[in-house]
Amino acid sequence: MFDAELAKLARIASIVSSAPFRTMLQEVCPLAQKVGNWASVSTSGFVICRYNTVTNDPLSYDVTAQSGNLGNLVHELTHVAVNEAYKHDFVNYPHRTAQNVPPRTYDPQGRCTNEFDRQTKYMDDTSNSKLSGILLQLTSRANASELPLDKKTAVTSKLNYGMQWPLKEYDTVINQVLVWLYEWGYPIKSDKKFKKEPVVNTLFEEVERAVDQANQLRLAGP
pTM to 2 decimals? Predict the structure, then answer.
């Protein structure tokens, strides 16, 4: 399942000119090898980690994603990338000074049963505010862009979703939006239609910059 989508993402990574986009795909796509169970849904999606209950290390992931939707598949694999990078229960940033994080508890399948409680301890208000500010700026840029209404709505809705829970959804939504913009043919290469640089190109560049910063933070680890 999802073999065709993963192969397409690998092809995109081999030809895309955007270094941040290529680096992101080269990070998240191989993580499909860590998925033990795949499931397809028509909307939304989610990821569950199964841990080694002795070492507390991730063993494998259950990934539910939308078949045929490259952006959603990258979104879900980004959750895996975040958990692998920080080991902070899918939190989107390292919090080296987090206090009173309860020990992870497990069900018989090695799934964490107190994930939300641990996430709230890893929550950092300064980091959340910074990420929300970036998403707000991207939303403003998307609203001002030349994107068709349906695509503009899709982008702003996804960015708003990230703002509701930046702790867990920031990296995922910016990666998903970058995939969408690429699939839709952006940035616009020709300047014949526009007397000045189209706003959608600036949107692409700003999403790309956010993706690059998140990439580098994950590569630095916990």
Answer: 0.94
What Å distances lie between residue 96 and 29, 123, 143, CA to CA? 27, 11, 36
Number of continuous H segments (helices) and E segments (strands) in the chain: 8, 3
- What pLDDT is stored for residue 10 in this prediction? 93
Query: Which has the closest alpha carbon to 127: 176, 91, 158?
Result: 91
Helix (H, G, I), strand (E, B) or coil at 53: coil
**Long-range contacts of the stretch 202-209 (C-beta < 8 A, 24+):** 202/141, 202/145, 203/138, 203/141, 203/142, 203/145, 203/147, 204/178, 206/137, 206/138, 206/141, 207/138, 207/174, 207/177, 207/178, 207/181, 208/18, 208/20, 208/21, 208/178, 209/20
**Residue 159 in tokens:** 């960015």
Helix (H) or strand (E) holding 138: helix 125-143
**How many Cα atoms are found within 13 Å in the side-chain-facing hemisphere of 49?**
28
pLDDT band at 44 (very low <50, low <70, confident <90, very high): confident
Query: Rounded distance, CA 95 to CA 122, Å?
Result: 6
Please list, in sequence order, all residues whose beta carbon lies within 8 angstroms of the beta carbon of residue 146, skipping any fewer than 6 positions away: 198, 199, 200
